[in-house]
Automatic annotation (TrEMBL):
Keywords: Membrane, Transmembrane, Transmembrane helix. SUPFAM superfamilies: PDZ domain-like (SSF50156). Its EC number is 3.4.24.85. Pfam families: Peptidase_M50. It is a multi-pass membrane protein. Belongs to the peptidase M50A family. InterPro entries: MBTPS2, PDZ_sf, Peptidase_M50. The chain crosses the membrane at residues 6-24, 72-99, 126-143, 155-174, 194-216, 437-463. This is Membrane-bound transcription factor site-2 protease. Zinc metalloprotease that mediates intramembrane proteolysis of proteins such as ATF6, ATF6B, SREBF1/SREBP1 and SREBF2/SREBP2. Catalyzes the second step in the proteolytic activation of the sterol regulatory element-binding proteins (SREBPs) SREBF1/SREBP1 and SREBF2/SREBP2: cleaves SREBPs within the first transmembrane segment, thereby releasing the N-terminal segment with a portion of the transmembrane segment attached. Mature N-terminal SREBP fragments shuttle to the nucleus and activate gene transcription.
Amino acid sequence: MQNSSLVALLLAFWSSLYLLDVFLKSYRRYGKYYQEFQEQHGITVSIGQARWYTTCMNRVFLKIGQSNSTLFHAWFTFGIWFGIIAMVSSIVLLVFMLIKTFQQDSTSEQVLTPVMPGVNLPLSQIAYYFLTLAVCGILHEFGHAIAAVKEQVRVNGFGVFIFLLYPGAYVDLYTEHLNAISPLRQLRIYCAGVWHNFIIVVVCILLLHFLPVLLLPLYTMGNGAIVTEVLPHSPVSGENGLDVGYKLLSINGCTINTSEDLLLCVNDVIHQPTKGYCLSIDDIQQMNKANTDTSKDASERKYACLTARSVTDRITCSTYYDCIVHRDMACLHPALDKNTYLLRIIHDSGPAVLFVGDPYFLTYTVRVSSYIPRYTFSPISFPNMLDTLLKYFISLSGALAILNSVPCYALDGQWILTAYVEYIFAKSIPKPTDRSFLINCILLCGTLLLVSNILIAMVTLFMS
């Protein structure tokens, strides 16, 4: 139902946009001005797609591409090596995934997974997705444009677009200039896009690794985990529960120093024997309001109804012998159902929070961060947002680098393969028709390989 609603909403949006565009163009009074505005600003709208094309970036490309010629020559030469390695690696990866899929009884472990907002991408993270794709696509095309200027190929213009749900960018190069240069110089241009995607991955990995150091002036780490979000349906939300800004310190005596410790402490609670609490016999008799029979010694009773908050404040124990401080002491364990646990969550903003239920449900409904703000103006959620954004850049930019390297029609891999074959086999295969036949055979295999993996991944996504 959710998938159908998303498709219906998508169709309604693009249909409305296209019909509005047609109506404004045909409007007798203002249609002419509307079309002139579109032509002047490079805006086009078609079914399922909107584009913006401009020449205002040409000066920027020209200025950057003509500066420091030696550095850029080495930079884009490294890009050739990466492009060739990525092209071969992409073929090996797709073949491996296809073989692995057919070796399994189902496609549930398919590695290649299309990202579909609202299907396998939470709508709460759709901003990360669009921002990452847009920036990665723009920097990818910037690589092509700067490399083209470096190789004396004219840049006609630059554009961005959105196709259905996927934003992207493109650069318009002067074809005659591009075909006139040598295959090696062409490779510097064709490989520049995937090379820049790879550089984005490397930079983001370094930023992610040094993020605690970079945020040190505003945030501290290692002395707790701060709550950044409590979902409305969480059992610890509301009064006497947890709230945004609370710093978690421990769960059932397990110390929490970072956000990762929350899950570790929950696992510890589940896999370790349930702890009890030391109480004196007198305290048990006074707190046991369920049984009015005081003639029988409380130490002989199997169960007692006690106040959970008062009991859990006591010293923990595993057996009776852990409580031998005084003679009349007992080790009481909570009576719980299977897969139900009692958690005592200590935080810095009030009395402990008691949770009874599945501990993993707590981790699903409470989001925490290791970064504790030093100042009141330091946003609580900013480090987590930055961490998530960097991870999106790493995964999506890496995917774009690999996918664009595949020797497939309409992808960068097509032109990388063409220029590479022309450069390597110009002497050993002198006839252009023979080289063209070799190129088309490889492209056909690469296209079929990629399409097969995508189809299998799509079937897996919508059938699961």
